[in-house]
Amino acid sequence: MSGKFEWFGAVIVQGAMKASGGGNVETTLWGIALINGGLDESQVTGKSHFRYSKCVLTQVLEGTSLVAMARSRGWAQLY
After folding, report:
1. Residue 15, C-beta contacts closer than 8 angstroms, at least 6 positions apart
2. Which of 19, 33, 38, 76 satisfies CB 3.0 to 4.6 Å to 11 for a cystine?
3. What pLDDT is stored for residue 74 in this prediction?
4. How far apart are CA 49 and CA 8, in angstroms?
């Protein structure tokens, strides 16, 4: 993550994660970050913020639903 960047929700990272903000530019993550490769604190520079937010996670999870069989086809031929 770098530059002016804001993310609200969950971030899943397979490798290592780097975060940098500079000057008056902030990089902010609201929610949670699941990082498999770890987060090296030397790679977090400038104005980078990681803020845990249960409210954001609740909103994200409420936006998901269980998989269900569609009642009708999801397409129609238009010609």
Report:
1. 36, 37
2. 33
3. 67
4. 12
Which tokens is 45 given?
């520079």
2-44, pLDDT tens digit by residue?
778 888 888 888 888 777 776 677 888 888 888 887 777 777 7
Residue (of 29, 37, 34, 30) closest to 59 by Cα position: 30
Element (H, E) at 34: strand 26-35
Predicted model pTM: 0.59
Domains held by the chain: number: 1
**Helix H or strand E segment including 29:** strand 26-35
Please state, in angstroms and rounded to a whole number, the distance separating the CA atoms of residues 20 and 1.
6
Provide the residue count of the chain: 79
Residue 76 pLDDT greater than 80, yes or no: no
